[in-house]
Amino acid sequence: MNKFISLSRKDREDDEIDIYINKMDSLKEDLEDPYIDEITPETRFDFTIGDVTVPSFGKAQLQKMSIYEFDSEEEYATFVNWIEAKKPSITDCSIETFNDDLEDFDRLDEDGLYIEYTRVLLDNLNVTKSMDLMIPTHSSFEFSQDFHLDAVRLRSCFGRNNLFNFHCKEIEVSDSEISSENVNQYLRAWAAGCYNELEKLEVLFYGNENKFDWKPLLQGLNRKRTIYEHNIIDPEVTDETTEVKIETEHPGEFDYYYYKWAKIHRKVDSEGNFYMGMIVN
């Protein structure tokens, strides 16, 4: 089930938010990713992680910081303590604390300190533009800092209420403990006048279709239109068409449109067209 839903605020229909709910069996490795990047020459640290020792840099601003898969709790603690002590200003930040093997999470949290380190990390990160976080926690995990960013991607087992800590233009939630009810609460807050930065929210879920239920997500919200996708084409092929139907203001009535897919991309184009991870011509 893949849906594009445009919501409007009550009495302010010009103030809209686009929601993308995508059911995907697996991630496509060739999707362009606007958040993750390689460590650049400007990205310098004053701590050792794994077998890589990098020089200290004082209080200089980091353009990009990408950290992946800590091998031990000691490594993770070293990283968190460095963040807490230095509080470097980071433009784009990507952190993966472990790989996809859940046994790694159990190993890292053997004495329960991993969760506390994670709380300290998120309360001390100083990020100015975008974040991509794959930091496993548990469903009741909470931290206090609010992030005001252009974009954030929350992956893996993030806590259910953590969405409320992000005041961002673009939010992507994938394979997370965050439920449709949590997203509904966030959107209700938006409809009431909070989270004014929000322009796009994308929810990705994999495998089990019952893991994320889109109906509670929309409960009590004003829908301007909904697009249902019928025929998914090969995303590598351009100039092909796929039929979608758009729900009108009258229940049970639909208008049919044909769109052309362009190349795979994760950004909205200049005219605001976006659907299923591809720009629409």
Automatic annotation (TrEMBL):
Start and end residues of each Sdz-33 F-box domain: 149-203
InterPro entries noted in UniProt: F-box_Sdz-33
Protein name stated in the entry: F-box associated domain-containing protein
